[in-house]
Every structure is written in C-alpha cells, then in structure tokens.
Amino acid sequence: MFERIDEKKAALDAKLPLPKYTVQSLREKLFLEWTYNSNAIEGNTLTLNETKVVLEGITVGGKTMREHLEVINHRDAISYVEDIVQKEESFSEWQIKNLHRLVLKGIEDDYAGVYRNQQVFISGAVHTPPEPFKIQEHMDHLMHWYEHDAQSMHPIERGAMLHAIFVGIHPFVDGNGRTSRLLLNLELMKSGYPPIIIKVENRLAYYNALDKAHTSEDYRDFIELVATEVESSLDLYLSAV
C-alpha cells in the first residue's frame, strides 16, 4: 500500500532543504486548510477565506465567538504540534491533554484537558464510546500499544490507527475529533511527512471508515483514506520543487 508513497517521500527528501519561502508558503497553505477543514467537519460555519481572516486577527460579522475561538485555538494547537516535533519529544498522555486543552481553551475551560465524567455518544455512529470509569484503562492500553506494537508499523499506519483508537475512546466531552486529527499529523510530521488534510467534503467516507474500524477492528479503509491524503500532500510539495 505504501510503496508509491515511500518513493515520493524519498524523492522529496532528496530535494531537502527546500527554499525558505517555498516552505513558508506551503506551511501557510496547509495549516490554513487543516484548520478550516478540521473545524468544518465539526460544524464550524466559517468559510476558508473567513478562517484566513480570523487567523489574521479580524472578526467576521454574523459568526459566533465559539467559531472564532475554534480557529485561534486550532492555530495554537498546531504551533504546539510543531514545537513537539522540533524538540523531538516522546509521545505522552500529557501531550494529548495539552493539545486538548488548547483546542477547548476559552470554549469549555472546565473540560479542557480533562477526561469526561459522563457518557457520550457519537452522532450517526454505531460505535458507542466506553463508560467514563473505563477511560483511563483504555488510554493506558492506547499508550502501551503505541510504545510497543505501533513502533514496528509504517508511520502512516501508526498515525492512522492512533487517530482511530483515540477517537473511538472519545476520552473528552468535546473536541475529540480535532484532537485526533492533530495527533495523526503529529505522528506523520515526526516521521518527516507534511501534514495532511481530512477534507470536509470527504466527511462521510471518513466517518464510515472510522465506524468500521471501531465496530469490526478492521482499520484498512481508514488507513487507506489517510494514505491517500498523505500522497496528496507529498504531491503538493513535489510540485513546488
């Protein structure tokens, strides 16, 4: 599944370092689209251009404070992901909570970075997340999986499964989707891949692949969906050089 992607990754690596302003413009493009699409999947009504304006510090009329904060918070969360990658920090449960704290900052401060104490359900999904008293046990299993079985996996498979397992646990009251996509890109970026965009127009396929993973433990559709987006990001970078 990954042979063609590995070839493109090697081709991109061979061209490193890329020109400074090329890197800067690609970063700005991908991070804007990442923020817009990740928020739009969760129901944020800001358009791509409105998201860009909010990131520039301008308020958009007719939009809620929450929608503005979701953009600003996501930008800060991406900066935190970049910081982790730059410092080569080991993956930890503390990082997950910090990412979530940034996602919900000023929106649901009482629940930011805190595992839920109540049952939740995923709209439109067959899968039901575990009961609150089982969350820590599931998160412990996730961390054990990551530190052992996951290390022998291809980075794309590891990142996709980290996202899927985490969002299946749904450890927080809100913000699980955004946090899971940040974790996915964190894992990819640590392995030298550009961030990927799960596009809002592919939301149905995205949700269906996740629900299949959660109900049958068959992650192939979701891994393939992620791999397609990894290739798309690599193609963007290769087209620039």
Overview of the structural elements:
With 241 residues, the protein is mainly α. It has a single domain (9-239), classed as Fido-like domain (Fic-like fold, Orthogonal Bundle). Helix content is 64%, strand content 0%. α2 crosses α3 and α6 (135-147) packs antiparallel against α7 (155-169). It comes from Fontibacillus panacisegetis. This is Fic/DOC family protein. One of its GO terms (molecular function) is ATP binding. InterPro entries: Fido, Fido-like_dom_sf, Fido_containing.
DSSP E strands, number: 0
Overall pLDDT level: 97
What's the CATH class label? Mainly Alpha
* Largest sheet report: none
Radius of gyration from CA coordinates: 17 Å
Note poorly predicted spans. Answer: none
| Overall domain count | 1
Give the number of helices. Answer: 10
Percent helix: 55-70%
From the spread of the alpha carbons, the general shape counts as globular
Architecture, CATH level 2?
Orthogonal Bundle
**Termini, distance in Å?**
25 Å
CATH topology (fold) name = Fic-like fold
CATH superfamily membership: Fido-like domain
Given helix and strand content, the structural type is mainly alpha
Strand content: under 5%
**H-E order:** HHHHHHHHHH
Site (Important for autoinhibition of adenylyltransferase activity): 42
InterPro entries: Fido (IPR003812), Fido-like_dom_sf (IPR036597), Fido_containing (IPR040198)
Domain Fido: 91-228
Protein name: Fic/DOC family protein
